[in-house]
From TrEMBL:
Sigma-54 factor interaction domain sequence ranges: 142-371
Pfam family name, one: Response_reg
Residues covered by the Response regulatory domain: 3-117
The keyword Signal appears for this protein: no
Species the sequence originates in: Dyadobacter arcticus
InterPro entries: AAA+_ATPase (IPR003593), AAA_lid_NorR (IPR058031), CheY-like_superfamily (IPR011006), Homeodomain-like_sf (IPR009057), HTH_Fis (IPR002197), P-loop_NTPase (IPR027417), Sig_transdc_resp-reg_receiver (IPR001789), Sigma_54_int (IPR002078)
Name under which the protein is recorded: DNA-binding NtrC family response regulator
Keywords: ATP-binding, DNA-binding, Nucleotide-binding, Phosphoprotein, Transcription, Transcription regulation
C-alpha cells in the first residue's frame, strides 16, 4: 500500500491533488490543518506527506519536525508559494525530502511522491531487517541457563560496551562465533560492519590480500584497488577466527596494525587507516604455543587483554535439554514435521555423551534425528557413534586397577593446576579432548581449592 497524506487548507486544491494522486494508485488521506494532519500521522501508516506552508493553525516548515516525531520513516514534501524558495530550503534543513512550488511544478508532484513512497518503503524494510539481525545476534539468542554460561554472558556483555580486544577461547563448536557476533551487536559499533575471517581457510598470500587489500597492479590480476577486511571493518569489528592458524609473518603485521591502526595495502606505498575493534578466537592453547614459538608471544599478550573461555557442552549438561528443544523445533519446522517429541532415554543418552564437537555436534545430531524420525525421537535416531558410546559416569573402578591409578593421577594434576584443563592436559602430555573424556569416564569431580 502506498499512502499519501495531503495537508492543505484550500479545499479545491486539496481535492484536485487528491484525485490526481489517487488516479495513480495511491491511497490518499486529507487534512485541512496542522492539528488534524498530526492526528492522522499518528493513527495511520503514512509513507509520504504533501504539506502546505501556510496553514490556519501553524506553519508547514515548522510542522516538519512534529510530523517526523510522529513517524520518522515518512517522507515529507513541502508545497511552497511562488517566490518563497527560502521556505523550501529551510524545509529541507528541517528534514523534508524536497519542496514543490505551487502552480509551477505540477508535473513534478507524482514522480516526487513515487520516489518519496519508495524511499519510505525501503527504509522500513531496512529497519525490519536490522531488527531481525539484532535479535538473531543478541545475547538473548544464546541458549542456556547454566551458571557457567550465565557467567560468561555477563563478562561478554561488559566487554561489549568497550573497544577492548577480546580473545574467545574454547573447544570447537562451543559458540565462539556466536559470542563474537553478540559482542559486536550489543556494542556501539553495531550499525557498522562485522567482518569475519577464518585464518585456517587461506594460505599466507591470500590471507594477506584478504586482510590488507590490494593496490591496483600489485600483482598480475590485481586490475583494481581491492578493499581489505581491515578497511571493511572501519568503525566496526574484525573477527579473526582460528587465529592460532595465522602464519607467523602475518602475525607480526597484525601486531603492528593493532598498535597503530594503520596498514599498507599489498603493492601500495601509503598507509591506510582503520578504526576497527578486534575479536579473535581460537581452540588452541596460545600460551603454550607461544612458549613453543609456534605463535608470537608479543601478539599473544596483545590479544590476551580480555580472554573469555567458553565452556564445553559437557560442563553444562543442564543446557542440553534447552538446546535439544530449540534445535528440534528449528529442524521440525524446516522439514515440516509437526508434534515431534523425544523420549526420556533419548535425552539421557545425550546428557551422558561427551560432545567433543560441542553444540555444533549436538545440532547436527538433532538434525539427523529429526530427519529419520516421524514421531518421538529415540536413542536409535542418533548417529551411530552417539548411540554406541559408553555412558561416561557409569564407570566403577577397582582400587587395584591401572585405571584407578590413572584417575587418581589426573585428579592430582588437575588440583595442582587449580582446575585449568588446558594446563593439566599439557602437563599430562595428552590432548585436551582425551583429558575431557577421561574426566567424564572416571567421574572426576572439581574440587574446591
Ligand atoms: N548457545 C547457543 N545457542 C544456540 N546455538 C548455538 C549456541 N552456541 C553455538 N550455537 C550453534 O552452534 C554452532 C557452532 O557455533 P560456533 O560456530 O559459534 O562455534 P565456534 O566455537 O566458533 O566453532 P569453531 O571453533 O569450530 O569455529 C553454530 O551453528 C551456532 O549457531
Amino acid at each position: 500500500m502506498k499512502t499519501v497524506l495531503i495537508i492543505d487548507d484550500e479545499d479545491k486544491l486539496r481535492s484536485l491533488l487528491s484525485r490526481i494522486i489517487k488516479a495513480e494508485g495511491f491511497e490518499v488521506l486529507e487534512a485541512s490543518d496542522c492539528k488534524s494532519g498530526l492526528r492522522q500521522m499518528e493513527n495511520q501508516d503514512i509513507d509520504a506527506v504533501l504539506c502546505d506552508v501556510r496553514l490556519p493553525d501553524g506553519n508547514g516548515v515548522e510542522m516538519i519536525g512534529l510530523l517526523k516525531a510522529k513517524n520518522r520513516l515518512a517522507e515529507i514534501v513541502l508545497l511552497t508559494a511562488n517566490g518563497n524558495i527560502g521556505d523550501g530550503v529551510q524545509a529541507i534543513k528541517n528534514g523534508a525530502m524536497d519542496y514543490i512550488v505551487k502552480g509551477d511544478d505540477n508535473d513534478k508532484i507524482l514522480p516526487l511522491l513515487s520516489r518519496a513512497v519508495e524511499k519510505a518503503h525501503l527504509e522500513k524494510k531496512v529497519r525490519k531487517l536490522e531488527a531481525i539481525v539484532s535479535t538473531k545476534f543478541s545475547f538473548d539468542s544464546i541458549i542456556g541457563e547454566s551458571q557457567v554460561l550465565k557467567d560468561v554472558i555477563g563478562l561478554a556483555k561488559k566487554v561489549s560496551q568497550t573497544d577492548t580486544v577480546v580473545l574467545l577461547t574454547g573447544e570447537t563448536g562451543t559458540g565462539k562465533e556466536v559470542f563474537a557476533q553478540a559482542i559486536h551487536h550489543n556494542g556501539a559499533r553495531a550499525a557498522k560492519n562485522f567482518v569475519a575471517l577464518n585464518c585456517s581457510a587461506f594460505g599466507r598470500e591470500m590471507m594477506e590480500s584478504e586482510l590488507f587489500g590490494d593496490k591496483q597492479g600489485a600483482f598480475t590480476g590485481a586490475f583494481r584497488d581491492k578493499k581489505g577486511l581491515l578497511e571493511e571493518a572501519h568503525n566496526g569489528t574484525l573477527f579473526l577466527d582460528e587465529i592460532g592458524e595465522m602464519p607467523l609473518e602475518l602475525q607480526a603485521k597484525l601486531l603492528r596494525v593493532l598498535e597503530t591502526h594503520e596498514f599498507i595495502k599489498v603493492g601500495d606505498t601509503r598507509p591506510t587507516k582503520s578504526n576497527f575493534r578486534l575479536i579473535a578466537a581460537t581452540n588452541r592453547d596460545l600460551k603454550a604455543e607461544s612458549e613453543q614459538k609456534k605463535f608470537r608471544a608479543d601478539l599473544y599478550f596483545r590479544l590476551n587483554v580480555f580472554q573469555i573461555l567458553l565452556p564445553p557442552l559437557r560442563e553444562r549438561v543442564k543446557d542440553i535439554a534447552l538446546l535439544v528443544n530449540f534445535f528440534l523445533n528449528h529442524f521440525a519446522e524446516q522439514t515440516n514435521k509437526k508434534n515431534l517429541g523425544y523420549s526420556k532415554d533419548f535425552l539421557k543418552r545425550l546428557e551422558s555423551y561427551e560432545w567433543i564437537g560441542n553444540i555444533r555436534e549436538l545440532k547436527n545430531a538433532i538434525e539427523r534425528a529429526v530427519i529419520v524420525s516421524d514421531q518421538e525421537l529415540q536413542p536409535e535416531s542418533l548417529p551411530f557413534n552417539i548411540q554406541q558410546s559408553i555412558p561416561s559416569k557409569s564407570h566403577h573402578l577397582s582400587a587395584f586397577s591401572m585405571a584407578s591409578i590413572e584417575k587418581l593421577h589426573i585428579q592430582k594434576v588437575l588440583n595442582y593446576c587449580h582446575g585449568n584443563k588446558a594446563e593439566t592436559a599439557r602437563l599430562l602430555e595428552i590432548g585436551i579432548a582425551t583429558l575431557y573424556r577421561k574426566i567424564e569416564e572416571y567421574g572426576i569431580q572439581k574440587q574446591a581449592h
